[in-house]
Sequence to fold (855 residues):
Amino acid sequence: MATVFIPSLMIDMTSGKQRIEVPGSNVRDIINSIDKLYPGVKGRLVENHKIKPNISVAVDGEISPLGILEKVAPNSEVHFIPAVGGGAN
Amino acid sequence: MTTKNNKFKVIGTRPIRHDGTDKVTGRAQYGADFSMPRMLSGKILRSPHAHAKIISIDTSSAEKIHGVEAIITGKDLPETANSDGEDRKVTLGELSTDLKYLREGIMATEKAVFKGQPIAAVAATNVHIAEEACKAIKISYEVLDAVITAPEAMKANAPIIQEDLRTTELGEKLNSQTNIAEHLQDKLGDVDKGFDESDIVIEREFNTSTVHQGYIEPHNCVAHWRDDGRIHIWNTTQGPFNVRDATAEVLNVSLSAVKLTPLEIGGGFGGKFEPYLEPVAAILSKKTGRPVKIVMTRSEELEATGPTPGSNIRVKIGATKEGKLVAAEAVLKYEAGAFPGSPVAAAAACVFAPYNIPNQSVDGYDVLVNKTKTAAYRAPGATNAEFASETIIDELAHKLNIDPIEFRLMNASNEGTRATDGTKFHNIGLTEVLEAMKNDPHYKSDLSKPKTQNKIRGRGVAVGFWMNAGLQSSVNLALNQDGTVNLTEGSPDIGGSRTSISMQAAEVLGIKAEDVHPSVVDTDSIGYTFGTGGSRTTFATGWAAYEAAKDLKNKMIERAALIWDVDSNLVSMNDGVLNTNGSKNKSMTFKELAIEMNGSGGPIMGQGTVDPKGVGKSFAGLIVDIELDTETGKTQILKVTCVQDCGKAIHPSYVEGQMQGGTVQGIGWALNEEYYMDRNAKMSNNSLLDYRMPTSLDLPMINTVIVEVPNEGHPFGVRGVGEVNIVAPPAAIANAISDAAKIRMEVLPMNPQAVLKTINENNRKL
Fold:
């Protein structure tokens, strides 16, 4: 199962847990799996079937251009982090 | 993924840039050079107040002036709400923003929120008449209290700049009215425990000023709203597709209704992604039926485009007495300007990135102030943040009596190190950069002695980090019958990217870089390409060229197989020569096949599109010697050496040019550049006479050392090179001032007044 690192601003939604292991072959599955355990997480991260604009998802240390479609391996690390816009928005 | 064969034929050489002759002879066409028949001149009337309600606008006198063809105000821009009455979001490249904020930045409707905000615009038969008409427009304002620093704007009783703004915290919107657009947070380990375990802890608070990119060419555009409903724009921009998309959104037309032709660009450094003029010129064109040209003045550039934000930064770092970093904490308050969007998230990702610190905490705030909205500027956010962290790292090294480079090596991030956000670094070259700094003759040399009594000298070092970007790019290649290749791309060429991209195609095809003819084309003529910025162009558009060249190569192999009547699997192409591997033993050069193209199936083209991962993160370091005048407080740069890991240097001259340019801009941040804001939140130094950028008379030769730790995520090992070099100079110079004067600077710029003030505050006897 992939290891998801819960952002500090969201750990109130996961009963204080900072890391969660959940099944899923892509980021969409991963978010759905977390949402089953901790309802509300999906709404916090996803809008109109995409990761919310100011959030990025990193799989195995790389920011994914594919967002929820990014593949996730069984031993992957998944991070949800503030999107870096560089002031160019 | 890095190509194992390092014996490149083209990559690593220094061919003359394809656009060089045009630029040195003046043939290159920039926006100011561009004109059309029956073209009108546009001028924008801007708010004289930093914060004011617009009570009324009277254009009647201006309309009567002979030669005035059209006048528009904010009400002429389309509404931004959708059918449900909610404000629409627009996606601009990688991020989205509220369309209302984008629109209000282009032209205010009810309230001005920074001095210089457009209020109305005129199209006239010449610019002087347009200026006269602007003066004749009567506007009544109710002036409001303004706020210009992030800490002030965060106070509970601060004037509210955007009444509907609510703080966002990682996807959640809070309820209270505020000037804080976003609060972000990263935590790693247990920072309180880390500080408890530290033998030495240093904490300081820093303030940095608003700084402009200072590109030599002002913003400009010509817009023509044609009878068929299409809008054609010619302008200077880093992001043709970004500006096309934003303009279409603001005008509420489809993306394909707008065609944007980028002209040559006279610098950008991140500041030329925004659609300041294009929607205004387009609406004036629609009203008059004629093309409209607008060119900014330098004062407009300084007051109403997007400089880097001022910031307030508190950093605290703890280490053991053996020199091991244990804990780090930062609070970053970044000025967004009058609309959300400072680079504080980038700052949070960068502030402690050079170091393996097990316990970290970073809080960042994107804060609205009554200034023009910030935009990207070369490693946006990083220079402010790492000025703070690298100053404290240096102080820790000195207090622990450890050489500052050795201290950094002891704690350097390497592959597998967890960054503040918890992600692990892939292969990076910080250790190699630090080793190169340690072994450089500059660092090994003794600091020379001052020649006069009131001068003291010091040496400082610092390193900087920037994450770089990938994003979408497209390249097409077309084989010519004379054996050359036409390359079309959508990346405006700011620093030699035509050549660095062509070289990557040439390497794959086994031909000379000079045999590739690159063209930067309009948005109708190439697939989507994100702008030239984020140190991404040689990485991503170069990768698209690599893919296009592979595509072209495969098609040439198939064509040779057809001509030779063999299976294409038996044909190979190496160093520009096609061969059969089988018994027929045929051979043909690249040029010979090109001649055979017609009559053997017709044109051969290659196509490459990417949206890549594999971005290689960058580190650079600076060694600087300074001389400080203890009577005046003036700092003179004596010697500078910039060391940077570029992955693989495609064209070393352009890498060195980026390193020198970034270093010079960093020196400007360090010593001179700032927006002087008066008590009414107006910029006092809004010309280049008073906004002091370094000149060649202020600087010695910038020495460069290229370190090559190939990025395993790119076919040729490329990392971005355009940005990270600006990050270290302010901290390195601050550390050199400390070495000379035994003071710690906590402000940028460190101009003579600031240095003398700090000396006096520290009550040091020099």
